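Note to self: keep these together.
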Amino acid sequence: MASALVAPFRSRRASDPEDNDGISGETPPQAAEFTCRAAVLVRVPRGEENIAGELWERHGLQFSQVEDAGQDEAEGMLYRVEVRLQGSRWGALSEAERRVMTALAGRVTAHIGDATLLEPEDTQTAVSTWHVYRKTDWGSGWLRTPAARLWVRVGAADVHRRVRLDGPGTREEALAALRRTPSLGGVAFNDTRHDVRPGIAPAQALRPQDPAPWHTRAFGLPAMTVAAATMLFGWTLAGLGLWWQIALAPLLPATAWRVGTWVADREQHSRAIIWLCGLALVGIMGACGYMARVIFTALGGMPELWRVGLALCGLPVLRGCVYAVRQSWFSRNAAALVPIAVLPLAWVLPWMGRLAQGVYLTVCLGIPLSAANADPLWMYLAGMKPAGLCVIAALCGLAALGWARHFYWVTGSKSYCIATVGTLTVMMMTAAMILGLSSATTAAQRTAAQAAAGHDPSAFFGINARLVCVSPLDEAKTAVQPGPLPTGHPVLAFHSTGDETWLWDPQRAKGTANPADKALRVRTDQIATRPAERGTHTCPAL
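Structure:
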């Protein structure tokens, strides 16, 4: 019975046309893209074969009747059902059994007897690609000849025509195939002007299906490990001095040779091409790690280990997002959905930027946001950090759904999985919003410290303030809320708006825990201001 599971599958169902127990005809094909196949042995009671066949056919499952001499016809008929899955091999058997029984929808009292994973029905033939290029002659010389050869190898001289051969192939076979091929109406092959070059990827990488487990594939676990190590190297390099960077940077080109053999065929390409392919990969990943540290350092407010962890988490998050959208409704309508998803940023970014400016100026310093005449462009820039962190949190939630889909958790308990991941995503986005707005609080504390030290504070996304000395034009008629008007020491002055000027006194109520209590409001036409000297804590008397 178990041998029936791994027997070659027939494209037509094996029911005997004479006994009317099955439904004849072709089985509708399942999705072309799949990572693993499973065969499930199902026993269906007598008289319910037609219903089971219709339900399996409706769900795109391939099935055939199993001829078992030892079976008792009273117990029912045995069917071999093939399920093609797009996901991990771990949990694939449980998912295959679940799909078989879900397709029956409780209308057939079937019983599963056995299940197994299948290897491809036949060994896929390796295919090599040969590109047609225009012959180039840059003259002779120790530099021109290698440069011309490299120009051809990287595809810069291609004429947009190619031929595919079974197996690795040779240059002579490719030329013979081009000569035999009739004209397609595009580039006509000419032996005097054209030649062929092998494609970069090895022939073994172009198989439609790779039966190897995910942890043994060239671009599986080894590639993710090398990518993480290269990003970590770039991260470390960004924190070192210039001379250490110069000394350690050659490690990347040294690693490029091994990585290049995963991309380029060693039998068809020179060592220079293989090395350049590897250098492109490790260089990109190293640059990502380098730039990630630069960005995190500029943002600040996070321990070093957390920054490293977040940078390395980008790899599984990216892979999880791919798992979430592939062969989905979103991927089929991406051309229309992506512009719609990006369009709200035109309103979200300025709203978040205005919120960050309001937290800095109004919540922390007690001054209305209208007192600062900031350019509208700064609102977009101020909103990039909180909006970017919220987008990252949303992508993490999408990646969690993708991994759950890859390991078939979302199909087993869809409602529970979506509710759990959705709740966690909302919590992460809320935390990301708070983290993004925390920079405004930090900037307000920095402004207060700089003002107390007698220095002009740093600008915060277009909001500028300066230390000034204030003197009343008519002390008896000067209205200050709350008074009195500080004239003996410098205060922060923001842009005047209308008839009022807002000041912030760093020495008012020094013991208060709320910096907003140090804000003052005064009429603009009742005071005169002059710049305060740098580092001073007193204003000279007029």
